[in-house]
Amino acid sequence: MMLAALLLVAQALQPDERIAPGKPSPDLANVKYGPHERNVLDLWKAKADRPTPLVLYIHGGGFMQGDKASLSVTALADFLQAGYSVAAINYRLTSTAPAPAAYLDCARALQFLRHHAKEWNLDGKLVASTGGSAGAGTSMWLAFHDDLADPKSRDPVARQSTRLTAIAVVNGQSSYGPIFAETIGIPRPNFERHPFFFPFYGITHDEVDTPKARRLYDQFAAITYLTRDDPPALLTYTFPNEEVTATSPVGLVVHHPKFGYALKKRMDALGIEAVVEGKGTPASQRTKAVDFIRKQFERAKKR
Question: Which of 22, 11, 292, 63 is CA-nearest to residue 197?
Answer without folding.
Answer: 63
